[in-house]
Batch of 2 targets.
Target 1
Amino acid sequence: MPIRTAYTAKIDYLQIMDENGVLDEKLAKDTLTDAEVLELYQYMCRCRALDETAFKLQRSGRMGTYPQNKGQEAAAIGSGYAAKRGVDWLVPCYRENAALWMHGLPMHYVLLHWMGDERGNQIPEGVRMTPLCIPIGTQMLHATGISWAMKLRKEPAVAITYFGDGATSEGDFHEAMNFASTFQTPTVFFCQNNHWAISVPRESQMNSETVAQKALAYGMPTVQVDGNDLLAVYKVSKEAIERARAGGGPSFIEAVTYRLADHTTADDARRYRDPKEVEAWQGKDPVIRLRKYLTAKGLWSDEKQTALDEAAKTMVTEVVRAAEGIAKPPLADIFDYTYATVPAELETQKRTMRTHSLGQNPEQVGLQTEWTS
Amino acid sequence: MSNATEQAVFNPKLRRRVDEGSGVNQVECNLVEAITLTLAQEMDRDERVVCLGEDVGLNGGVFRATDGLQARFGDQRVFDTPLSESGIMGTAVGLAMGGMRPIPEIQFEGFMGPAYDQLVNHAARYRTRSRGAITIPMVVRVPVGGGIHAPELHSDSPEAIYAHQPGLKVVMPCTPYDAKGLLAAALEDPDPVLFFEPKRVYRLPTRDWIPEDRYTIPIGQAKVVTEGDSVTVISWGASVYQCLEAMDQLPEDISVEMIDMRTISPIDKDTIIASVQKTGRCVIVHEAPKTAGMGAELATILQEHCFLYLKAPVQRVAGFDTIMPYYKLELEYLPNAKRVAEAITQVMAY
Ligand SMILES: Cc1ncc(C[n+]2csc(CCOP(=O)(O)OP(=O)(O)O)c2C)c(N)n1
Ligand SMILES: [Mg+2]
């Protein structure tokens, strides 16, 4: 028997707008209109401004650890814009704030979360998303489950889940992919390959040439896209989401992007990362690229930028004020969300604000004093 | 095997001296520096020792506990692994079976979830299910506990979960001296040891002078921190410091016998029984939720062995039976000196 080829595959890489803001007109057809690009660009700038402010809040002791999203905004916005607000589910990690805000998460909630306040996780009614997810690689299974439920309930809704390159090393990731493809759930796996998982570069994280090829093993449509290219991200996301909505099952997207900041404010990337690499990627910044494009088209100017920066500043101030203006929750708060009904022992702990039991049974022999505190 | 003293001094930034009275070489360090130093010494001593985990190599770990180890021992002794706790734990089990002495690090206790199966269903069970033919000598290092204003799942205290698992040993030192001696002992142990490092006290403002040369502290031995005869206070990890602070708030006539368990499992019954037989009163303090926490086991041991000596019910000052809150409320959630002092006062008045 001769050897035959059992399987072959290729991975496409899509870029529509290059680093200089030059468009491939043919590929750009049927993606975003200039009016949309203009609007999303301004949105991106506002998100960037808030991200920079969040960093400063941490540095000045007004917020805890914060993972900057800087440099990855096109990936979040392009994909978020492709999903239907209030219909499709967003199942995020923590580096796609812009997508969450677009889908109705109040901006200051993200700050509250990183200020150590759970109220930042209380997703408002009608907003379809799960809270920021700290344990890496765990949320994709929920996206598979949510979208499975959508399918079972015959709701034309899709779940898009976000995660990093590092997250694809976790077992849960592979299980989510396998379930999704086996049950053909309407799930979009959106990997933000920002080249680093804290100090571990993508090449040391895995021996595969692309992240996208991992989906091949699960028989899933998969694509690599320039993650800093708003139009390309939008295009592949829209395709994947609408395919899923139409019953075509799950897809995988590898958005090739870059973490321009430290992993979090607790990290110091100079310990492990060549500044030259960062510099090179600064040239591929999604914000700069869009600005060049819009300027060349006569749709943007320095004056408009100045006005936008001012407006962004005002918006950021308001968002910070909203987050900082909320009084610290009372300790009693922590007891109210553990169960639907507070069990007896917990009720006692809540009432007495302690865990030791003296004074709870005054009839107990030997008790000399009745404690009231 | 080589002798540590033949090697270049590890972390020369630490101050060193020879103690005049005893002639002992001493080094001044905090808890995390003591751990790093011990890891270096053990790797010097035994070529089979390897460290593996997320960001433990070039970056030296997110708490810098493995700082400088890859520079000294190379990337075939200190491995940055893929981001996979099950992978880290499961391959460490295999490394141990293959003749190495792995020291896997799980970055935070909250991320032990994915590693749970490998630790509990494999590392802990191999000896039993192979009737002693296969053993898993490894030391799993995990920063633990709250109080550092970290995000969700970076502040839990799961020691009771693992103490409940036969086949595992669980230690939690809270001083540089104990960390050094217990880590060395853990590496000598033929069975898997879970080495919890209370991150809140990794870097206390004052460093301690401890012996530089290798020494061990037996696993399973509690330490009497202060002797006293009115009441026994038992704790471990960062809570020990809250207890010590509470002692300052008590009236002078209350003399506390403070015990730091140091090892969670196996439990040093003798030390706590002897102490409570002497004092007749006991308060147990831990960060973990009260219900089914280690305090429950210790209190049971005490009522089994000290029933007729007890002058008051054994009390537990612990975390509340809720999910560990986000950090805005964590200091109120954790047992603090005020709550400890209150419990001691009430136990004394009983
Ligand atoms: C289960 C788990 N293990 C470890 C960590 C610690 N940790 C936080 S972020 C991170 C790296 C994540 O890398 P990647 O998935 O590429 O996402 P990125 O941060 O680059 O966006 C690690 C190891 C965690 N949060 N959860
Ligand atoms: Mg990454």
Note: The domain at 3-211 of chain B is CATH 3.40.50.970 (Rossmann fold).
Target 2
Amino acid sequence: MKLSGSEIIIKTLADLNVEVIFGYPGGAVLPIYDAIFKQNRIRHVLVRHEQAAVHMAEGYARSTGKVGVILVTSGPGATNAVTGLTDALMDSIPLLCLTGQVPTHLIGTDAFQEADTIGITASCTKHNYLVKDINDLESTIAEGFYVARSGRPGPVVIDLPKDVQNAVSNYKEIKVKSMISYKPAKKAKISNVKQAVDILLKSKKPIIYSGGGVINSGVKASNILTKLVNYLNIPITQTLMGLGAVSAKNKKFLGMLGMHGTYEANMAMHDCDVMLCVGARFDDRITGNLKYFSPNSKKIHIDIDPSSINKNVKVDIPLIGDCYYVLDMLFKELKQNKSKLNSKSIDKWWNKINKWKKKDCLSFKDSKETIKPQKALKVLNDALKGKDAFITTEVGQHQMWAAQYLDFYKPNRWMTSGGLGTMGYGFPAAIGVQIAHPKKPVICVAGEASFLMNMQELSSLRQLNIPVKIFILNNEYMGMVRQWQEFFHGGRYAESYTDSLPDFISLANSFGIKGIRVTDPKELNKSIKEMLDHKGPVLMDVCVAKMENVFPMIPAGAAHNEMKLSDKDDKETQTAEGLALL
Amino acid sequence: MLTDINTHTFSVIVDNKSGVLARVVGMFSARGYNIESLTVAEVDEDRNLSRVTVMVTGTTMVIEQIKAQLERIVPVRKVVDLTNEGAFVNRELLLVKVKAKGERRVESLRVADIFRARVIDSSSQSFVFELTGSADKLDAFIKLMQPLGLVEVSRTGAVAILRGEKALLAK
Ligand SMILES: Cc1ncc(C[n+]2csc(CCOP(=O)(O)OP(=O)(O)O)c2C)c(N)n1
Ligand SMILES: [Mg+2]
């Protein structure tokens, strides 16, 4: 069967079970759009900006575990996608991004809408390909797909010159030939697993610290991690990326750790004698000052990416492999081992932790006059109980509060830009999530400033008419920036006031979308219910206290046991060393 | 010690495709690692493989990171830290142009002879010498040629190979 390159591209994607492409047309991808027009196996979702297409694909991928697929034109289409690709690289999200390219004979001539897409995206993709021969299309797309989702997942770009799209050839059945150069490990060395178990069982103050690797490894990994935690009766804390792997309901879960983590989680990390890190990477927002990070613990590190081992923190036992497989090995070894954890020591450890918990570090001073952002999220959390909701966020204070005050009971329910911290991520990501889960509640917890960064997607949302809820915690400030200026720059609020905001209700209405505003704490319950009960999309403007700060906070340069717990806590927030850090 | 700074020589076998070298070099600059020298050439036409030899300095932790980061690059097939692997030999190639007359011209020939450098071009006013060897030897040669009329240097980075019968890739 003779097909054009474009038809081959679309057929290959369909044969790889791709259901949806997020994209935006342009000259260099018109033949592919033509091929999309002529078929009905793959759905196309039209965005209003290519960055949003990538974030939508990320939302789709993170909530399903599948590869998110994007199609953009050459030049500006490709460069607009770069932020999204970088975001996906940092958070290990599987994406396949197809970019149009000028015809092969024009490459290098500064042709109209030519950009060096391969060069530009080399450092923000896991891998990229330029296809110069129509006969390489199927195998390259299939390989790119495999690379994106295997090992440590990540974004892959395939650059497609227009003449290749227009050429004609036979369709070849796709098969991913086993790659010689790229073979991610699944299982860890058994000798290391045995050593890890020995260390773990001898511990008196163990803790598990898990991250996004568990989510990426699939539901099976979250299940076995939960079993392990329950079996050992030891505390677990999860990173911003890892929330939901072990349910918030689980009594062993101490809350999130890190810069805005809970007191008990950070204190336990500091004090533990054995740390089992599962699919997390000792990021600086987690460790605080490396010099003082968990000084007296032996560290066991499960990671699929060998380069994560000893990158920031020297560990004692590396277990390189997929979280599910390694946890499974670990659990089997644990059960076979004759020795058990000393339950007296573990009880003592829990007593200590329970004392830290008594600080009630997430308590805040509520108000009758203004809506506290924390309160708004608590009410939202209660309203979502039992509804299996999916949450995305933008970046800033609201993101940290959402992580602190919302409960996640399952993996893949929480999508936030962790590594790159991309404002503008949350809203399009929510659209991607809703595409994948049409019947589930999907809420984007947003800040007003972040929302402005991709608000053109209101148009996409209207066109799709899907019931995404945008929950803006509107403090009229780039709150996180303002908080740092308050703490570290003498309260000089340089350019962090979000001036000239639109009337969000009129804005929503102008797109034919329902808008709700709430300013009175007494109305909060009712308004949130109204939002959730509405069948279509809603933009909700929650006018919250403007000067609220996120606590607890580990000041930059400080250690885990040096948290600042409230505005009244007079702990130094500014150290000379800290100022130089971020 | 973990904080000691050492120089390591890596052999990196990569698929010989466009863009691969850019990815390898880009990784070093993006992560702030120092490259002392780097050479690359195709070494196996049938299997379409190139070999990169790269010399880097860093602490043990950094050297381990470099190895892991190289292995992460999708078209990289094999990475061997020759310095850790065992004894290996390495060579650089140097071309030096010396412009001199009279006594200095004779002296430059004498030095070249001691170093076993070859004359590969000569005119009434100049010589081009070719010398292979370790970086140290090449440095010493350049130093001696400097006062004798050295006007131009061209040299490669190191290429290296393990001693003994062991091969990096099975044939
Ligand atoms: C694209 C981008 N630019 C700048 C920043 C730096 N930044 C981090 S948080 C923040 C303010 C966010 O304000 P808003 O969305 O209103 O959230 P809030 O902190 O007020 O809850 C800024 C500017 C960023 N993270 N991303
Ligand atoms: Mg704000």
Note: The longest strand of chain A covers residues 95-101.
